[in-house]
Amino acid sequence: MTVIPPEGVGLAGLRTAARDCRGCELWEPATQTVFGAGPETARLVFVGEQPGDQEDRRGEPFVGPAGRLLDRALTDAGIDRADTYVTNAVKHFRFRPTPKRRLHQSPGSEHIAACRPWLDAELALLMPEIVVCLGAVAAKALISPSFRITADRGRLLPRPSTLSEDEAGVQQTWLLATTHPSAILRTPDEERPAAYDALVADLAVAASVLA
Q: In the CATH hierarchy, which top-level class contains the domain 10-210?
């Protein structure tokens, strides 16, 4: 099924419409659609991979362990999360059920493609100054399928505009990719402080765009 988000409804209208999305099969086992959250005036947007277990249960993005680590990193980078918009490339939790818990499964290219109209609609409304891709899935979706976090993280890249020059004005939207907070949580204890510091350094680059 091709997803066609409604026009002229604002973020609240998009969020309501996305609840009934049947663009792929992930809606069936998931608890609910997890849409983006944050002010429509946000100049900085974070795009992750997909909601996790806690996000799926609560219906909000980045409220689990990875979200808490992101909050701490944002504070250390001088960014107020309340001024940002956070969302995911895929809006439903993909998982494998086990007797004890639901195990995360990375979304496939078909899931990313099915959800892409929602992400494009969010970004078209927000028109942020910078979009930070958290992890490889978001970076490959928004920057390039061949993008490698390890080689190209922390660099400001211009986002191609779909608007005319008159519509876009003088504002340039930048893209920047960094590690997903969940990857840092999986990093061995002895390597985790350096991985966290690298995340904060990348976020500081994003913050410099807004200064």
A: alpha beta
Helix (H, G, I), strand (E, B) or coil at 27: helix
C-alpha angle 85/208/144, rounded to 5°? 65
DSSP designation for 26: G
Asked if 42 contacts 84 with a C-beta cutoff of 8 angstroms, the reply is yes
Supply the pTM of this predicted model. Answer: 0.94
Q: What tens digit of pLDDT does each residue of 190-205 get? A: 999 999 999 999 999 9
d(CA 50, CA 67): 12
How far is 158 from 59, CA to CA, in rounded Å? 31
Q: Which residues contact 69 (CB under 8 A, 6 or more apart)?
A: 181, 184, 185, 196
pLDDT tens string 124-142: 999 999 999 999 999 999 9
The residue type found at 144 is S
Query: What are the residue ranges spanned by the domains of the chain?
Result: 10-210
